[in-house]
Amino acid sequence: MSVSENSNLDAWLALGARSRSFEDGLELNLANVDWARQSSSLPTIPVEVTSWKMQGGPDERVRQLLSLLKGQKQIKAVALRGVNVNEASVSCISQIPELIEVDFSDTNFSNAHLEQICQNDRLQSINLAETSITDNGLICLKKMRQLKQLNLNKNKITEAGLHYLEGLVSLRDLSLGGTPLTGAALKWLQRLVLLEKLDLRHTHITHNGLMALTYFRRLQKLKLGGNRIEDDGILMLKQFVRLESLELAGTPITDQAIETLAQLPRIRRLYLAGTAISDVGLSQLAGVTSLLALDVRKTAVTAQGVENFQQHLPQVQIKTDAEQKPASSVIRSIDLLEMNHIQLKSNQYGEPIALKTTEQTSPATHWFDVMTELRSLKNVELEDQHLDSEQFSKIRDLHHLQALSIKKCKLPETTLVSLCTLQNLGWLDLRDSAISDVGLKFISRIPSLSNLCLSRTQITDQGLIHLKHALLLKDLVVKQCAYVTDDGLETLGSLEQLKHLDIRNTGISQSGYQTLCEKLPGCKIRY
């Protein structure tokens, strides 16, 4: 399967492929190919095509294409997005001799696959966004000294893995968005002084951690959206005199920060959607003659403010929804939460009544304060979040809250005392959280508590004693709580108001179960 002497480009285009010329050759994009309508074989490889992109597609077609590409010396770049990656497919790609750019984003690409692909130490660009790469896998990158571009967005990368990148001194473009990194972790990158583009959106970095960016004086493009960066933190950005593009969408900056941004001498693109800026801040940007693009959607900027701005800088392409949205702090709070990938449900009057986090939700430090401003909330579901004491204490402001789930969340147990003031809270789910007897002491004093789930927590027989204060408790789940044993039978048996009790996979014996059935005849017990 060699390169055809006569180009087969037309044959590929007839299948639905799209071509694009660029400096080093021709790119062929197979995203729109209808594989189901094609014959069993594929055309041979056109000699002029140096870059191949495949978005999705059947496993057999992926195998066929890679078999064709294997050994082809003219190919410089291969992108396999949203496909099923296996050892055989990675092996084929590894056998493309002059390959310098690979893209496996949104695939099942793993640490083992990375080790395999890094056998080609001439690679200059690797895109592994939304894959299965972890800290341990990054050790393979240590030898990739020619690497100029690396995308690790939305992977479970921590400081433990970041130190493997410290020797990649040729990097110009690094993406770490959607990872749980803090500002302190960036110390491992201080040798990467040639960085020109850096993506740190939706991480755990706050304005206090921005000082770590001082290593990167050559930055031209910086993305910090979705982080808890406040006005004071923006001051240090003045040192980036080469900065041309800055993304701060979804941060809590105000008009005060605009004074600093207006001093960036080369700034051409500013993305400020979902911030707290208003017409006052927009007017300060009217003097920035280098500006070409501006995004102020989901802010307090008005249509009149936009009109005044464009009179001064008519060349700026501005994105705004000022004419479509009413001026409302509640509307803006909803926008910010949605930008942080939080699901909201509203009642017939447009008031938010239910909130739920997702796997893509940003760290709670970026949005928890905003959530507690939505006083109409009745149902809140949080999962796998780190909650600090100061922020969580503000949950006491949600006076209408009736149901709260904080599954797999980490928070100081003493902070749970904040729930005791919520008069309407009746349903509480703490499964898989680090709750022990200490937290149970506060939980039991929630006035209207009727349903409580404590599955897979660290509560013990001794802690169950606190539940005697929960006089309205009707439904209790202690499933898979290993420290709940027959020693807690006396306490459980005294909770005569219980209607449902789940003690599956606890330390309670068969005879203990029988005892509970006798003591609580009106309670349905799952054992």
From TrEMBL:
GO terms for biological process: SCF-dependent proteasomal ubiquitin-dependent protein catabolic process. Pfam families: LRR_6, LRR_8. GO terms for cellular component: SCF ubiquitin ligase complex. It comes from the Bacteria. InterPro entries: Leu-rich_rpt, Leu-rich_rpt_Cys-con_subtyp, LRR_dom_sf. SMART domains: LRR_CC, LRR_RI. PANTHER family: F-BOX PROTEIN YLR352W, PARTNER OF PAIRED, ISOFORM B-RELATED. This is Internalin-A. It comes from Rubinisphaera italica. The gene is inlA_5.
